[in-house]
Each structure stands twice: as structure tokens, then as C-alpha cells.
Amino acid sequence: MSAGHPALASDVAGSYTVELPAPDDFDFWRDRARVLLQCDVPPDQVVWIEPGAGGDLFAVTARSLPVPQDPHRTVRASKRFLTLAKNVALHSDADRFALLYRLLWRHRSNPRIMEDRADPDVRRAEELDKAVRRDSHKMHAFVRFRLLDEGGEEHYVAWFEPEHHIVRANAGFFMRRFANMRWSILTPKGCLHWDGVTMREGPPASRSDAPDGDPVEDLWRSYYASIFNPARLKVGAMLKEMPKRYWKNMPEASLIPALVAGAQARESRMVEAGALEFEEKPDTLEGVSKAIHGCRKCPIGLLENTAVMGEGPREAMLMIVGEQPGDQEDQSGRPFVGPAGQLLDFHLQKAGIDRSQAYVTNAVKHFKYTPRGRRRIHQSPAAKEIDTCRWWLESERALVRPKLILAMGASAARALLGKTVSIARVRGQPQMLEDGSELWITAHPSYLLRLDGPARDAQTGMFDADLHAVRERLRELEGV
Amino acid sequence: MTEQTILQKLEILADAAKYDASCASSGTAKRDSRSGKGVGSTEGMGICHAYAPDGRCISLLKVLLTNHCIFDCHYCINRKSSNVRRARFSPQEVVDLTLNFYRRNYIEGLFLSSGIIKSSNHTMEQLVEVARLLREEHDFRGYIHLKTIPDADPELVHQAGLYADRVSINVELPTDAGLTRLAPDKDARQIEGAMGGVKLAISQARDEKKRFRHAPRFAPAGQSTQMIVGADSATDADIVGKASRLYDSYRLRRVYYSAFSPIPDASAVLPLKRPPLIREHRLYQSDWLMRFYGFAPREVMQATEDDGNLPLDIDPKLAWALKFREQFPLDVNRASREQLLRVPGLGVHAVDRILASRRHRNLRLEDVGKLTVSIGKVRPFICAADWRPTGLTDKVDLRRLLAPKAEQLELFAA
Asked: Are residues B49 and B194 in the same domain?
């Protein structure tokens, strides 16, 4: 086992100095480490230095390496050590080669040393390995190419500042990814040039060697700003993964301070634009009535009009929903009192439904119109306006809790279903709503008012039939 | 109206896509551009090319083909009845953007989704056309994630899977009632039917690949889905249950959670509050517990409080441990891997390190401290060679001792 050099073991005065030809030359380190180990040189007698790192300071004690008696004597290291060491060698820490040699030396007494994760040397090696892998990963991620047009030939050039000596080790990644592009990566730790066939390495470069812009960066910056959601600001999480030191070479990073500063303002605008003051639904009908009078959430609320609250018993079994108040309703402040209301009353009576027992309301609480001279001409509410006002209808539903809801017309149907349906297709078929109530849909009485002749007769017949079915169903429900 | 520029379209269509949480580019087949004419490689690990100030990774060019939509889903900014600015890319424009970004190393690939225009089939055809152009005309070998339209022709979904690395269909809401209420044009059964179809195609393609070397790949990075959290009344228990059912039934790679964000021009049907980001975070943690820590969905649900939601002040693993204190303390020198994974504060890495180190030494508390991030959190639940948490494990106010101090959101750190 021990074919040591007696001369070396006693020679404590001088240490050996190994100067590496390149800061990332793992193979060179491995060769020298093997020789030293074969000669049983303990770690405290070797000084490892990088090129240019104060070489002359050690020149005094520098000695040529010993020659092992048996150059074929095997030096063993675990697989885990080798994987780790290849990365550790790329770290910028000045003591990395000494650490690696010490660990290799310690393998002799404990071949499974790498498994002892609580050992300080093992932990240090793991930390360095992790830092190098992270730096490589950030290089894959944060290199930004800029396109140069060199006499009709495209050349993609990037400037990148790695923390460790990782440039050569990552050439393969960029070659595999951009095999058919001509590209260069310039760094202060050396350069890579790929022409589509061969890889060339170059000396360190400076930032001024790289191009300073690319028109596509405007698109990229605008993408970066648009994909960011101001409602979820998490600056810490961003900084952890994209530390500031990388920012100066990333075209999108210049936007960050403004995006962060503007985020809160943008978020509150988003909420305001949607929400206004009603975060909680009112818990009484009076509360709803009060709130709708103050509602300016859609353009209808801004017209010259009065909100019209639903009316009827608080515990009504039947809720009748129309479209919106008309001119007369607006003036009287009560639902269904105009021509359509009178027609409704007539048909309810005919069907045997007592209006005073029903809660009658509208999908939209304000009268929408366009002024024409002195007259106000009815306008149908837009889908968005119905959806906005759905909040109030749902408040009323939650308080009255009817067992059956009769929606008259497409607007009312939308307010209850959230989507636009065809009356002809859905009438006569009750649907179960989320809260367990039953929804029946029929035409709006004002539709009947607009028809003439046989068409009106046919529609009136259907309207009566719908009301009749509702009456029958109400009796069944009462029986339960 | 004047024609919109690419820049204007990109602003609108990227903005419209930001509510999709997924940006993963990992776990697909390994390939590179050396044997081809185009660009691109995928090497297993995904790469995040940038991070936005919302802390989210930017890995893919995530855009919609168009934000015109004939659907009217209340939580969606692109709903038919919303007033947002609309735009539409041609397939070629998306292809050019993808390649221009990719060649400059901004992205890993493309995540393409779309509002529904004309019909589901028409929309799906357009999405597939983008993927086809990239793969066939430009020999693009980067990552492609296509969002599929649930009721599109299965043949189109199949083509999508042949070009894309990953396909996804969003279940949108954790409960069917929520979907009916907030996405009246969508149908839960149709969504799950389409997921079932994709699962079948993926497993068939895997099987064929084993027999025939040249059998085409189908979505090698699998399928995923997304659920919106906080837009309806579903509890965390509902959500965890739904997610685990989806994992089991459709062999999903991931279920993404998206805290409902107040969106401009939202419908009044929705709660308009700050998005429940912590809740989203807790759900992801519970997802992790099920995927990497050997927790059964039932056990995660045990960690919920009386209202069916996970506690917000502590993580679900700690919540579970506090409820089942009789299982602790565990001896770090003897307990099995499965047991140690249950200790709050010990991650998968820390557990593996403990298992490796304890072969070499009898671990003391100090050693454990070196192997994990926060020994303070771990201490009440373990025994070591020189440590026994006498009484500590059973302390009534342990939760208060371990819950992190309430912090202000870090708003102006940058």
C-alpha cells in the first residue's frame, strides 16, 4: 500500500506549488492530483494557484513535482466525488483545488466520505457545486443574443458576465440548441464562436465588443411588460431567481422599477374599474334598495333616472323578473306599472296567479333610454349591463329565496343564467338553478304589445300556456 | 380603423394570456437541432429565461392567437361581453415572433391558447396550423404547449398532440356548479371527456413507441390543467379532492391553481378582492405533499380546518403534524424515509441527506441543523442522539410558536 517517499514525508519546510494553465482546467488538476497522491503528499503541503493569481509570490518555494515510484498505482475516488469535482473546479473560489485535493486525500481513509453530508468539506464542495450549476443554469437562461447583419450573413452575438469559470463547459448547450445559427458569446472570462460547423474559443472580451441593440428587443420588452400581472406583485421571488447583478445585460430588466412602482396603482384601478363599493351584498331588501339608488356602476346608472326596486312579500314563493323599468315605472318608482305591467296583470289574473303574492322585479334596476325631444325612448340593456346588475338581482334572490322564478324575456333569462338563450327554445322547460330554485322562462309582455294579428294571438296563447304551467307547478310546490 | 402593428397585437394578446398560470417547459423528450435545419433543443430541465415582478417565471412566449371570443365566461377578461381591446394574430405572425424570440435566447418555446372564434373547430385548426408551421416548415425543435378546445373535433386534438410537447385543457372551476354559473358555455363533462381522450392517445403513443422506433410521439410532456381559486365557493378540501381525482383519472402532469385576479372589466358576479395568493400557495404546497411526500388526498383534507379550508398562517404539512401529534417525535437516526418526510420543515433533499449521513454518524441535533434549513421548526417533532423534545411536541401553543410572524408584503424592495 504505502510506497511513499521517505524524503518527502520528512520535508516539511517546502510545499509543492501547482500552477494551473487555465482556471477551469479540471483535467490538469486531476493529472497532478493523481501524481501527488501516488507520492503520498498530504494536502497541507500543496499550494494550488490559478493563472495570474500571484504566481511569483510562491516562486521562491516552487519545486517540481515528485515522480511516483509506481505511476500505475490506482487512485480511487467515488463517482459522486468526480461529478461534483468537475463542477467545483469551475468555481471562482481560490481554494477550490485545495478543497478537492483534501477530499480526494480523505477518500483513502474513508472511501465513502462523500455520503457524509454533515462533513464540512463535503458540504463546502456541495455548496460550490451548487453555485456553479446555478451559474450555468443562469447562463442558459440569461444570455441574450443580438442580431448583426454582416454582409447579408446573420451573426447572433451576446455579451454575458458569468460569476464562475463556466463558459467553456457550457459551449455544448448553445451548440446543440443553435446548431444552425452563426453565433458568438462574449464574456470577460473568454469567448465562444460557432460558425455552424466548428467551435472556436477566444480570449476575454469587453462589453464594447458586443452589439448594443436589436430591434426585436422592443417586442420582447413589450411582451415582458404585458405578461406581468400587477395584482400579484412578488418582488422578492423575482430577485431570488433573477438577482440584480444580471439585470444590466438583460434588455427587459430596465422596465422593472417602473413596473413595480406602477403595479399598485394599476391593481387598484383594476379593482375600482370592476368593483366599486359593494364588496358585500346587502343583507336586507331595504339595504339593496338603498344601494341601487346609489349605483353608478354602469352607464345606465349615470342617466337621468331613478332606481326601481322589486316589490312583493319578503317570503314570496314566486319571483317574477322582467327586463328593466320603463318610462312610467321610472317615474312612479314601482315595477310593472306601465302598459306591459298592465298586460302582465291581466294574464296573471287569467292564469290564476295572485300578483300580490309574488315578488316582482327587474333584471336591470334603472331605465335605459335615449332622449328624443321630450320623449325617452326605451333601449335594451347590453349584455354587460345585465351582468353588472346581476349582483343586485342575486342579492334580492338571496333574501327572498323564491322556490320558482319566472324570467320574462331574454334579458331576464340572461340575468339568471349568465348566458343569452333563445326564448323559443327554452320556454316551457324548467331548469334547476344553483340554489335549488326552479327557473321558468317565457316571453316579455312588451313583446306581445309589439305584435299584431295572428302572430300576437299565437304568442299570447303561448304566454298564457307558460303562466298556466307555472301556476300548476306552484300548486305542486305548495303541496310539498 | 387602422391596422394594428405586431407590437400592439402582442401587447393585447400577451396581456390576455397572463391569467394562465402554467409556464413549464420541462419533462419532454430530449432533442436538439444538430441533425436539422432549424433551431431548438429540449434537455429535460426547463429554463426560466426571465422573471417578472410578479415572481413568475417567463419560459415560453405565452400568447393568445386571438382574444375575440364567442364564449361568455364570467371570470375571463376575454369574455364576449367584456370591453377589452381585441386583436388577432395570423398563424405566420406567431411563428415569426416565436422564432425571433427563440433565436435571441429569450424563450424555450411557445404556449399558445386562443379565444373561440367562429367555432371550436375553426379555432383549433388555427392553433394546430401554428404548431405545424413551426415544426414542419421551420424544423423548430423547442417546446410547444397548445391549449386545446374541449369540444373541438378529436382528430384536431390528436394533431395538436403530434406537434406539441404538452397539451392542456382547463377544468376552470373546482365544482360543476361553479362552472355552470360562471362559465355557462362550457360543459364539465365535455372537458373531462377531452382529457380522457388525450390520456388515451398519450398512453397509446407510448405503447407504440416501445414497439416501433419510428412511431410518432404524442405530447411527450403529457397534459396539464388549471383551476381558478377564489372565484366560487369551493373549499380547499373540494379543490384538493378534485385535483387528486384529476391526477388519478387522467394521469395529469400538473394541476395548476390560479388565484382569481381582479380583472379589468370583470363581471359583477365575481368577488372583487385581492387575489388569495396565500391560498393559492397553500394549495400548491398540498399538491407537493401528494406528489412528493407520500400524502394521500384524504390526509391533506385532514389538515383543513372546520370550514374545509387549509389554514393560511401555517403550511399544510405543519397543520397535519399538529393534528396528529401522536405520530411524533420521530428519531432521525431510525425513522423510515416515509416517516421523516412527514416532519414539518424537512424537505425531500434534507431527508435524503439525513438518510445518507446517518450511516456514518449518530446524528445529533447540530448535525440535523446543518442538513436542513430551519432547525427551529423541525425540533419539536424529532429526536436525535442528544435531543428529545420533552413536552414540546404536546404544547398547546405550539402552533403559535411555529407560525411565521405576520409580515407586510414586500412591495418596494426593488
From this structure: yes
Site from A149, A177, A426 to mutate, B interface, most B CB atoms within 10 angstroms: A177
Are B388 and B267 part of one and the same domain? no
Whether residues B198 and B50 share a domain: the answer is yes
In a domain, B293, yes or no: no
Mean pLDDT for chain A?
Answer: 88
In a domain, B244, yes or no: yes
Secondary structure letter of residue A352 according to DSSP? T
Domain boundaries, chain A: 6-135, 143-209, 216-275, 285-479
Check CB contact of A171 with chain B, cutoff 8 Å.
no
Residue in chain A nearest B99 by alpha carbon: A216
Specify the CATH number for the domain of residue B235: 3.20.20.70
Q: Return residues 86-125 of A near B (CB < 8 Å).
A: 112, 115-119, 123
Q: Report if residue B321 sits inside a domain.
A: yes
Residue numbers of the domain that contains B382: 316-402
pLDDT tens digits, one per residue of B332-380: 999 999 999 999 989 999 999 899 889 888 999 988 988 887 888 888 8
| Residue B257 sits in the same domain as residue B337 | no
- Judge if B239 and B380 occupy the same domain: no
A247 in contact with B, Cβ within 8 Å? no
The answer, for B412 touching chain A at a CB cutoff of 8 Å, is yes
Domain count, chain B: 2
> Cell 432549424 identifies what position?
B38
Which of B275, B300, B335 is where one domain is finished? B275
Residues B261 and B326 grouped into a single domain: no
Tell me, yes or no, whether B172 and B68 share the same domain: yes
Which chain B residue's Cα is nearest to A388? Answer: B268
B356: closest CA of chain A, how far (Å): 6
When pLDDT is cut at 50, 70 and 90, the band that residue A267 belongs to is: low
| Residue B391 placed within a domain | yes
Is B104 in Cβ contact with A146 (below 8 Å)? yes
Residue A460: CB partners within 8 Å, gap ≥ 6?
A: A347, A448
| Chain A residues touching residue B357 (CB < 8 angstroms) | 115-118
The Cβ-side half-sphere exposure at B358, using a 13 Å CA radius, reads: 20
C-beta of residue A438 within 8 angstroms of C-beta of residue A404: yes
**B138-166 pLDDT tens trace:** 999 999 999 998 888 989 999 999 999 99
Q: Please indicate if any CB of chain A lies within 8 Å of the CB of B30.
A: no
Please judge whether A233 and B411 are an interchain contact, meaning their C-beta atoms are less than 8 angstroms apart. yes
**Superfamily per CATH, domain A285-479:** Uracil-DNA glycosylase-like domain (3.40.470.10)
User: Is there a contact between A235 and B55 if contact means CB atoms under 8 Å apart?
Assistant: yes
Tens of pLDDT, residues B229-262: 888 888 889 999 999 999 989 989 889 988 776 5
| Domain co-membership, B112 together with B242 | yes
Across the interface, whether the CB atoms of A156 and B104 are under 8 A apart is answered: yes
